[in-house]
Inverse folding.
């Protein structure tokens, strides 16, 4: 029996290398679960939105000694230490051991939370990511960043912990709400705008097909994003250098998410605004042409994403940005453009220029 | 100016290698803090017992940009996610960044807790261990195992996370309570009994000097334990093999600690009983001579350590042991003797023989 057609990338991390399987309808392709994990005690963590759609389909293909499920509520506001503790408590209650497997079925919140629980339970158990949102398929599920939020900052508590496999069924994207889907496109734009001018041009020419969720176009977009990310993660797993470029727009975005209260803005919506603000600051600093900044804004607008920050105030934004994980030795480090399709870390962002961008963006 | 005399071992972990400095009076030897950490934002975590004795002495030698302290209550019952959260909250409140340094000043509880917080805050910040108990100096502070307890099991939530340096001031052992000090000797005996017959014989011939806390003898004992542990950790950081031998007696011990309620038995006291029970089971299985088992018991008794488990019942003990992290594929894996000074992992412990040992030990 042959399963649905899919493509496989590898994240090259030596003895912790793992495959990313991408294709439509592969959610129940049992052979994609690594063979040594297939018959162990398994806990599937998902949320109340995803469960009715995909939980049965996933579970029917699993052959664990025991397969249990845990449903969490849906939303960024639940990406907390409390939810993490619920996963740990459930594993302990089931008396699962170090050879157990956690499967994260859902979007970035479920993936980050479940990944962090896998990193910490008994100091680390096996993890399989089954991302069902565009954002998770192109970004969150790949690369091993796991975390929960803290009132003082997004992703403040977490670990680098790689999954054993990522299974990205692109057919699941058909059921995403319009808002969730468009939010995921912001991360797609990030890869093109910040790292690959050719991919950016491809996105411009395929924007309508992407808005229409054309299956083949979508699968190609996910593949291209994952291959960019896999190469960067293989080179810089713990973000000592180049991996930080994947955070284009994210320092602004995290400030927006923290400042408005987790769950108000979707992460991707905040990233869209963050990319635009990074582009505007880059223009002010002579690192990006105005015409290219306009192309970035136009593509994000074509995807229906917001172009303005919420009215939380330029001063509050600056203070929230100062809590970012990329701050070092008291200086604000920001990923900025070096022309379209290229970026680098600015180690000492001029705060007056930043203030001007925040004020002009209307966040003040 | 020359500081106090000390010796230095290295834990050979490639680009994560780190020194263990051992000697009397080195608590305030500022030059032992790795140079690149010396001027960063620093948070010292300690407890209310250790703080009045050593906090000022340590802090006076630090030159961090900011040096703050956090005092936690003393005791195994505080090695919880709640205490972990207190450390994280304090770091966030101070707006400390990824370049901050955590210093753990205290025994195994402070070291494990602070180490786990260092592993998770912003996905990992620098950690220096300054152990002030014998147990922490010979075991907990070295090797990167960090954790907190869960009602269902000891050290159930944690991470492998190596410190940047360990500074073991053996002069601090003079102020330990008799009970704390003797508990630490159980871990010292573990190294000899399970891994090094020559060291076991040395312990027998120096037992009175150790009971008397002779400074030179103590420093040599700490050195020898740390060098055994450093070699094992360098070979098997994440306990895929040989490192598990450092858990001699610990499956019994964790069951005792969980079963009596954390904080009732000191970890080392439970380890002493665990080593004796492992010896008795090894005798029953023909892996250890009765005379050698008696030598193990005699040395632990000479150190004033308990030889009998608490009356929590053989059945409860077995159920608690079944939660151990070393359980795999439903089989109870136990470290057992292969003669005195040697040990190996028994992958499928005969449960009837285990039951006989538990019953004979009076835990039933």
């Amino acid at each position: 029996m042959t399963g649905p057609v899919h493509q496989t990338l590898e994240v090259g991390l030596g003895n912790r290398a793992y495959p990313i399987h991408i294709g439509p309808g592969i959610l129940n392709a049992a052979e994609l679960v690594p063979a040594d994990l297939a018959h162990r005690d398994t806990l599937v963590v998902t949320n109340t939105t995803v469960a009715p759609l995909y939980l049965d389909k996933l579970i029917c293909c699993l052959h664990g000694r025991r397969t249990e499920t845990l449903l969490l509520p849906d939303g960024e506001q639940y990406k907390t230490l409390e939810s993490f503790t619920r996963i740990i408590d459930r594993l302990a209650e089931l008396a699962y051991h170090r050879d157990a497997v956690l499967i994260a079925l859902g979007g970035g919140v479920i993936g980050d939370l479940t990944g962090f629980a896998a990193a910490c339970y008994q100091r680390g158990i096996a993890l399989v990511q089954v991302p069902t949102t565009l954002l998770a398929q192109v970004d969150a599920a790949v690369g091993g960043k796991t975390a929960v939020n803290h009132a003082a900052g997004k992703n403040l508590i977490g670990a680098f912990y790689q999954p054993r496999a990522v299974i990205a069924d692109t057919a699941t994207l058909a059921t995403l709400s319009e808002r969730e889907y468009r939010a995921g496109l912001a991360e797609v734009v990030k890869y093109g705008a910040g790292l690959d001018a050719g991919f950016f041009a491809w996105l411009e020419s395929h924007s309508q097909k992407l808005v229409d969720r054309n299956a083949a176009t979508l699968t190609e977009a996910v593949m291209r994003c994952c291959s960019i990310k896999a190469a960067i993660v293989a080179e810089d797993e713990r973000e000592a250098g180049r991996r930080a470029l994947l955070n284009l727009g994210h320092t602004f975005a995290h400030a927006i998410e923290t400042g408005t209260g987790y769950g108000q803005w979707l992460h991707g919506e905040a990233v869209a605004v963050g990319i635009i603000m990074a582009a505007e600051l880059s223009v002010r600093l002579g690192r990006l042409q105005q015409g290219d900044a306009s192309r970035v804004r136009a593509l994000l607008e074509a995807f229906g994403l917001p172009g303005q920050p919420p009215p939380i105030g330029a001063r509050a934004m600056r203070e929230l940005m100062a809590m970012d994980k990329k701050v070092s030795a008291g200086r604000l480090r920001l990923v900025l453009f070096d022309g379209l399709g290229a970026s680098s870390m600015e180690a000492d962002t001029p705060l007056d220029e930043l203030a001007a961008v925040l004020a002009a963006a209307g966040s003040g």
Summary: Residues 226 and 322 of chain A are 30 Å apart (CA to CA).
